[in-house]
Amino acid sequence: MKRKQDPAIEEKVEALLSQMTVEEKVGQMLQVSYNANGMTPEAYEKWKKMGLGSYLHVLGDEAEEIRELAKQTRLKIPPIFGIDAIHGHSLLNGATIFPSQLAMSCSWNPDLIYEMGRVTAKEVAADGLDWAFSPVLCIGRDLRWGRINETFGEDSYLISRLGAAIIKGYEEDGYMIACAKHYLGYGEATGGRDSYDTEVSMRKVREVFLPPFRAAAEVGCSSVMTAYGSLDSTPLTCHKEALRDLLKGEAGFDGFVVTDWENVRSLVKQQMVAKDMDEACKMTIDAGNDMSMNTPEFYDATVRLVKEGKIATEYIDDAVRRILRVKFRLGLFDENRQLPDKSVIACDAHKKLNLELTRETLVLLKNDGTLPLQKQPKKIAVIGPNADNLRNQYGDWTFFTHPGFKPDVVPLTDYYTILGGMKKVYADSEVVYARGCDTKNKADKDITAAIDVAKDCDLIVVAVGDDYEQNGEMKDRADLTISGAQTELVTALKALGKPLVTVLVNGKPLVFGEIAQASNAVIETFNGGDAVGIAVAELIRGDFSPSGRLSISFPYSSCALPCYYNQYSGWHGGKYMDMPEGNAYVFGYGLSYTEFEYSNLKTDKTTYQKDDTVTVTVDVKNNGAMDAKEVVQLYIHDTVSTILTPVKQLKGFEKVKIKAGETKTVTLSLPVSDLGFYKEDGFVIEAGEFEIMVGKNSAEHLTTTITVE
Ligand code: GLC
Question: Residue range 264-284: average pLDDT?
């Protein structure tokens, strides 16, 4: 249900546009930040007085100052203020910090993610800002890429569902707009290399990478950010087919497009596809970019080129129309626009939602029955480099790391590290701590001290993983093996013969086979935000059954990539000769404290027409003694297709709560159109037989078949 154009708004847009000079129009197409390369304080003061289209990396009250300055310009067009609020208003010290997108995606809970979007919008708006550069809709398919932590995982369908949910949440109350990024194929760059070239055909772009952005357009996302990289050697910053044809044409996107950080300049300096700024500005505007993020020199060059008739006024007008449309829709021109009060920031209701969502992100990867603990331990050892390390727990894009790197800032939020959570939840037990080692420096370890602390405890909880220097832009990682002396630490702790629960605090899937072997249980948290310490401790105590399921596959080795589940058939041998077949942990996997039994998989018919919808039902029984949530997953396989299609693809899921001993009949709807795919000459739904697989993950499921005529 695309957002309908509002005639009243369109009228205001046209009326304003018709009054604007070239300078005023181009001013709307520029977004500047005080920390742009080469920006001086004097220059920034000048830009602030121009009432430009947008400013970024501005926090709170500085926005108010710039808004007042804009009111002194001729047309008083309000700027729009963007910020990287990508897991809550995460750059503001004191805001609610939610789990990262990768962690959130393991909840498979669009409803809670929608609520998280609404809370984030309230906190961003309460801080005087208007625009979150979120969500990331990139597909995390090459685990070496530094920004896996920012994705909703490896599957286009799951990303589409969760992306639509968070965008609806962000934009629901009219406090803020969202930004679907990075358009597109950014996570598929060769070698997982950040901002490098992505060698895929436009067919594959439509098939795999476009659907999440199409879903974003469907729910009326107001902005899209182009990616640093290039598609088959054409930078996204000037990719006319991707921007004008696919996004604004086929997908019907009616908001505005902004480049990524100084990417217009990158056409000249990095990608070398433009000889100078004049050429770069023309290329990006002709291709359909509406706003330049930074690159202040964009302004003079573009004004001159428009006046010389070298850039078409219709392109400038289309860009400014889109920007003004979004600003009117957001109510920025409305003098008495009502915004949330600052008191909503990190209020109890927001913290409560954060804990509820965080609980559902936890994935139990291994459990030999040690969990849930049957009795309260007298003495608990919490060990490891990530046991009490908020920076590593938060991951990227928080007030520690952006917009400037501030490692020593004192957090103002209520937060719980793994240690903090264990102390709070097990208040009647004695809880002791030792760091044991560093996350990556092998020489930085004191395992003896850790053993001394742990040796007379009844339970050992060890938190390992990676750190904020091993994830993020320009931090692609070739070796995914868990680093430093972490494996040595965990195996030494194992030798004490105590129950050993490993908690993973990491920005991406790691290779940690020996640690998994040594652990009685393994809980994956990724970057869990403020409340993860409480959620983990509650899970260990058995307050709830874990309902997190992996949104991304874990390989046996860093060299066994790509490892995403929805691969094609036809691999000669089907495995690496020196590795087990498949993955260490599969897409959709996650243990529960109960056992779910699937039976009676049925479809309402056996033969379908192309415009039908398949109604799939399955019975799911909770065979355990604990009420629990289960993620019922539906995959399809086109048994014969005229071009290769994946051996299985997620095309539906439902998260359901089932009481102990209860059987629930779960119904999933599958439009037959979801069985189609793109060929060179367009979208097809081919007649023939399809397998429908429904189960607890991508490897364990029941199978039935249907025929499409
Ligand atoms: C960065 C990122 C993008 C972010 C932008 C503004 O380089 O690629 O995700 O929103 O710049 O900070």
Answer: 98
Per-residue model confidence (pLDDT) at position 5: 87
User: For atom 8 of ligand 1, which residue has the closest CA?
Assistant: 260
Confidence category of residue 407, pLDDT binned at 50, 70, 90: confident
What amino acid is encoded at 44 in this protein? Answer: Y
CB of 411 within 8 A of CB of 390? yes
Q: Measured between alpha carbons, how far is 290 from 269 in angstroms, rounded to an integer? A: 21
CB of residue 261 inside a 6 A radius of ligand 1: yes
Give 530-552 pLDDT, tens digit per residue.
Answer: 999 999 999 999 999 999 999 99
- The set of catalytic residues is 260
| Nearest ligand 1 atom to alpha carbon 150 | 9
- Asked if residue 181 has its Cβ within 6 Å of ligand 1, the reply is yes
- Cα separation of 465 and 507, whole Å? 8
pLDDT tops 80 at residue 3: no
Which DSSP letter does residue 288 get?
Answer: T
Asked whether residue 308 carries a pLDDT value surpassing 80, the answer given is yes
Q: What is 473-540 written as a DSSP string?
A: TT---S--B--TTHHHHHHHHHTTTS-EEEEEE-SS--B-HHHHHH-SEEEE-SS--TTHHHHHHHHH
The three-class DSSP label of residue 150 is helix
Q: Is 272 helix (H, G, I), strand (E, B) or coil?
A: coil
Q: Does ligand 1 have an atom closer than 6 angstroms to the CB of 321?
A: no
- Which three-class secondary structure state does DSSP give residue 397? coil
Ligand 1 lined by 416 (C-beta under 6 Å): no
Helix, coil or strand: residue 691:
strand
Question: What residue's CA is closest to ligand 1, atom 7?
Answer: 261
Look at 133-137, 334-338, 587-591 and tell me which has the smallest mean pLDDT.
334-338
Q: How far apart are CA 192 and CA 189, in angstroms?
A: 5
Centre of ligand 1 to C-alpha 260, Å, is: 6
Q: From CA 149, how far away is CA 103, in angstroms rounded?
A: 8
What the block records as the tokens of 641 is 């297709």
pTM for this one? 0.98
Instruction: Determine the residue of 261, 262, 396 to mutate for testing ligand 1's pocket, defined as the one with the most ligand atoms within 8 A of the Cβ atom.
Output: 261
Per-residue pLDDT tens over the stretch 5-28: 899 999 999 999 999 999 999 999
Ligand 1 pocket test, pick from 133, 226, 295, 396 with the greatest ligand atom count within 8 Å of Cβ, gives 133
Q: If you measure from the C-alpha of residue 56 to the centroid of ligand 1, how many angstroms do you get, rounded to a whole number?
A: 10
